[in-house]
Amino acid sequence: MNRLQLYRELRRHVSLSEKRSPVMEQNRTAKVIVYIMSGFMVVYLMFLGIILAVAANGTRMATPAEFLFMLMPFILTLDFLLRFIGQQTPAQLVKPYLLLPIAKYACVEAFLLRSVFSVNNLLWMFVTVPYAIICVLFSYGFGGTVGFLLGFQGLIAANSLHYMLWRTMIARSVFWWAAPLLLYSALFLPWIVGDFEDMLLCYAPIGEALTTWQPLSWLAVVALIALLFFVNRAVQYRHTTVEAVQTGERQLRTVSQFSFLDRYGEVGEYVKLELKSVIRNKNIRTSFIYSIAFTLFLAVIISYTDIYDGAFTSKFFIVYAFIINGGMLLVKVMAAEGNYIDCLMVHHENILQLLTAKYYFYCALLLLPLLIMLPTVFAGKYSLLLLLAIMAFTAGPLFCLLMQLAVYNRQTIPLNAKLVSKGSVETNWFAFAAEMIAMFAPVAIIAVLNLLCTPTCANIIMLLIGLSFVVTHKLWIRNIYDRFMKRRYQNIESFRNTR
What we know:
The chain has 499 residues and is mainly α. Helix content is 73%, strand content 0%. α7 packs across α10 (196-211). Mean pLDDT is 80; it is low at 419-427.
């Protein structure tokens, strides 16, 4: 079997794996919602391309080919960040093939090529194609338009490889975040040293050179892609094999017994389990650190700057500061417990006590953004009633919505393995849809209430809605538990299959 045949066979394996995934058989309604949202996103991107084309035709600062490339620092940075939502690294897919008698780097190369030529990398075409048709085609002809589109996609492909490199390193240690932060900050260096116009003019010649097919510019793009490809190949293979065969002994750590929780009985024991999972398990600990860091960052930005002081953004980002912990952690409810779900099913109502403990734990985390933003109340920027209303609404209907995923989450996420874990590959579309509703529904509700009544009255209504869910939490958690138990055999089988 030559390499081309091997690449095709591995591609077929991935396709079959996706079709046989338990996720393909569930959450069909959520998938439809996601497809509709994707359609809106495509329309939005095309509209953005038309707006940029109109702006390019109206400026004398640069040619149409130069105009879009002047925005490359912003585009590449945004592209890098958006890839964290769904792009996998090849190291996540290589593990089953490590022991096969095939070329050392063949699997890594196959999955690298698959990632580079994936549909996700073509999303920017919905921006560049309308842009090119409106303003590049008539200025540079068909050949120039092809050069413009291919040059732009070449930089996006290089950015994809760049993402995969640092995403793999970040999975090993959060300190590797410093490298992409410095590199993407360097793209804005002309702006920092000079002014905004200097930065734009610095990147403009790249677009002109690629559109007019200047050999040196294309040689630079090809060399950059090749360099990132071979560096990725070595890094992905090394990190995959190291994690797959790691057998070193780990030093035991002394962990607090959290004896103050003993008075709360079984619920207290499960709160201890939640705390010890965060302390001991690498995956859960990393996600927890990220969620707390994002919460702190957003709360500080909202509280002590005027960036989000608009009528809409002020309310939207306050909601986001409160919901981010649930959006990153509670959305995976029961996924970590899939590793030991058989033990949890031994005693009567164990799952009920576990869900109750999780709810209390995440409600306690809501105190963090509240405390950080309290100084804004004294400064008159926000009212205490607003903060309490959003906090109660988050702890009430939003957490109620996210905890429904305990019934539908059927994938086990690994506790420690990061790169070669099976559970991190599939996507739960129902969870994605629930997360999007939790992020955007409160803002829509606040907007409607503000139209119908005064802001104070709107806050009181939000507070009462939230408190009603908090007071009745035992009822809806019991409902979640009953529905989970009706599906327990199906869920347990799925948890076992995705370990």
